[in-house]
Amino acid sequence: MAKQPSKATRKNRSKFAKWIWENQVKPIIRWHARNRCEKCGASGEVKQLHCHHIDGRQNMYMLICQMNIVLLCANHHTMGQVSAHSESRTGREEFDEWLVGYKGKEIIDELARLRGCSPKLTLLDLEGIYQDNRDFLNND
Description:
The chain has helices at residues 7-10, 13-32, 60-64, 74-79, 89-103, 105-117, 123-139; strands spanning 49-53, 69-73. By secondary structure, it is mostly helical.
């Protein structure tokens, strides 16, 4: 049986969102990506994998929004010439081009739109997200 959040955690929106991120969203992202880097296909058995937030994680919604996340090996997340956090402008641009092709322009545009006006999640919203994720994880 999957880990359950404490009652205290479920009464605090910020703690509950972080719990959902760590215990539900990360495993779901890994499952969807088959535990492989979504850019190069490197296995999580061989390389450390990171969840990259495409358009930041500045609020609870963007933290747990699954369309805002892509699973990457360390090379494509931070360390490589062509990576999400590349210090090279051309490396970052090349990564962004791949990302638009991979996720689709509509998703990238929607994330940019949500950046400044994402919904404020209530405890009721978080409870619904928790239940949906729990059902998904229990059916896997």
